[in-house]
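Example 3.2
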Amino acid sequence: MTENEIGRIVVDAALAVHRELGPGLLETVYEVVLAQELSDRGLKAERQLPVSITCRGITFDVGFRADIIVEDKVILELKSVEKITPAHKKQLLTYLKLTDTKLGFLLNFGEALIKDGISRMVNGLDESR
């Protein structure tokens, strides 16, 4: 399954979760429910996965914790805030670069309409596929 195929399922699952729960809950609620929704749709979705990074010869066993990693190919960064800031997008882009992952989604469940809270970020993804 390609990153883009996974991405379509992620967006559809996020819409379903937001439709059911609405905005304004804690981020962890959406994380648990979205991971289960993705699992129900046949995808491997790992929550709060510790990701190691190496910088200048120093290895950090837990450089960051990914909210959800889907099929070892797509990183999901979840928020439940009034508005996404440029810093939120930079955070996800850093995660993509550090893990050499090609696709990520910033999902803000704090928006009244989840479609306004979905940001798709790429890191060298071949868009022709």
